[in-house]
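Sequence dictates fold. Next comes a concrete instance:
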Amino acid sequence: MSTKEVLELLAFVRQLPTGIAYAPIYAVGTKLQSGKESKGKTPLERSHHHVMNPADVALQIERKPEIFQAVGAFTGPRSGGLVILDVDRNLSRLKKKWAETLAGAPVITSTKANAAKYLFTVPSDLWAEVQGFGLSDTGAGYEVLWGRQGVIYGAYPGSSDGKAPAGQYGFEGDLEAIPVAPDWLIAEMRDAAGKGVQDGGFIKNRKALDFSDREPDEVAEIIQSALKVIPGQGAGSRDHWIKVGMAIHSELPTDLGLTLWSAWSSEDPEFHQDWADGNPCEEVWKSFRKGPVSLGTLFWMADQQMPGRLWLSEDLRKVVEQVEADNVTRIRQVVITYAEVIRRAKEIQQIQNPAEAAHAMNVLALEAGYRDAGALERLLIAQMQFEQQDDEMAMASLLDKDLRFEYLIPDLLPCPGTVMVHGAGGDGKSMSAWTIAKHVARGIPFDVRGDLVPVESGPVLILNGDQSEVQVQQQMRDLEFEKTDPVTVVMGWDLNWYYRFVKLIEKHQPKLVIIDSITGCSRGSAFDENKKEFASPIYWLANNNGRLFPACTILLIHHANKTGGFRGSTAIRDAVDEVWGLRRPDKKQLERLGTNCRLITVEKSRAGRDGSKLLMKLESDLTFSLADYVEHDADAGNPASIVDRVLQRLRAAYPRQMTIHDLAADRLCGGTVTGLKKALQRLVSRGLIQVSGSIPSGSRPLNTYPAILSRGGCVNTCPKTPEPSAGLESNSGQAGDVSRIAGDDPANRDTPSSCPDLFPSDTKGSGVKGQDLHIPPREERTPEELQQIQDAARALWN
């Protein structure tokens, strides 16, 4: 716009009468808050919610003339009943038909031929009975703006078809003498509102009930009354559109509610193209959930357009007033104290029947004024956390706490810890979990890094929501569980049963908890798997493990998606300590492992175990075995990492203990002292080795480290070896009656002799080459003899 045009616009705005809601209009191409560009008819966003007078509009134009280049007026009750008859074509024909009624009205013109806008007012007693309509609704070549905004002066952006060039709007008439809308226009507006001759309305059934108990048709009639006066806001108004939909959904989450929202949405002409490929409301409608937006929001929007609830008919206005009064009465009647609510909620949690407990919690929630039992249960959990008094801790308090990070199975299952295993249906997720449960329940040693490590036995709790009782029973029989095994199974579990979970853990004190599965135990969740809120119960389990309930290992079973990953939001992965992916071996691995195997890969680990694998195998006796699995590199003769080399060296020396200096001097182990120290710390934390004692060494004693292995009573005896016949080094393939070495008594063969001491006494010299050894017991050796033994050991391994 030129300077002259800007000054003319400001002069026009400043002489406008009050009583009408105006709006500064964005120039063509201006970037809106929504990120879209204005087409030259979009009003300032806040004008939708705040009535701007002429001075407010003039201030915006004067400050930013390059952005605001026109002025518009909102129609409807906000502007005292202003209505705009917007003629897009056939103006001459309309003038001939209604010449007398159009003559006295203010008129707005543009560069578009045979088109104009006429301004009228609608009497206030008719506001609730009329409605605007679009160009396509009648085919008469004009539309009626009621509740929407129309540009009345300033820059004209040109017609959408390009036939009319950009220019300026012209204005004729007096805005302080706007005539009443003619009868024919009122009739068309009444017809558009569905208030014609039949006076059918939407629904006639009216009962003074709370909205939660109201019949759907009654709720629909009230919603439709509000929608009649709430206008669409055009480009960049998605938030407004969403809020209207959510408000409808809060009380009418059915197809009827969707129909009402869709009908209202389709009336906004600026989104006409969005309907070309179907109803854009349908997919968004499915995503709505209960939240802070309610019918109260919709009522507020309608009141902004028509204050005093005039958008409701007299009888419906009384219904809403009674509902609001009833809600206030209910709030005032709530006299239950907080202490009483908590006391009764805790008593309800002691009820054994889950259905009875759920009913009692719902009754208490309603009595106490809560929306549902879920809110009451969250209140109960918050009270328990408060009683712990450890949400806020100074660093000194945290460091002084006696906290220990341990392993239920060394280097496999952390305790406390949360592990998710996922895989395709039928691949054996449950069987893998049950096999781990069997190891824990019976204390069966577990194969980790090629050797057995001890597993401390303890109770196991299985929370099932994925399989039937008969399926679980059959799987337990396949794994040969016995009646005496300390395993408890709970059917039909729900992850949202926080308080009941705490009580179960306190009752059974399990070392291992298995939840099968995340999806099967989330039936009561209000969110689908792709929403981050779906992972909330898992975060709760991880954050409160060892705080609200005794520390344990929680193993969650989950289903895989089509691509082999886990289903749902990545928030599920973020919530757990480890993620295990179970799959069938590939063709190359099948040749080596066999068809009855499954591989479990650690895909995420907070303990740095990423890439580690487990192998589950169906044995010949139809039982399942589960062990740590290491894929050896044919080109590598030694373990790749210093941690693995230290572990193998300590295991090879078992039961002998080694110090960090022993490991540093060992050429098979190698590494710097710093690297060895970190490796030893990591192995101790994983439960694969331990600090057993110390020996004097200069100013500071050295810790001694033995491997933690499960070898029963064989640790102090030599293994049995094949017994050769006379003159042969091996009896492999020999007949049973072959002659034996003199002095060999088969009767004594069942009791193995003790292993010879590796290091000979100084009176015999070196015995490594096979000399007979006679060494006093360790406790009888002098310090000098012990030092000689250590020196000999270093010489031997070097």
Notes: Residues 195-213, 633-638, 712-779, 793-798 have pLDDT under 50 and may be disordered.
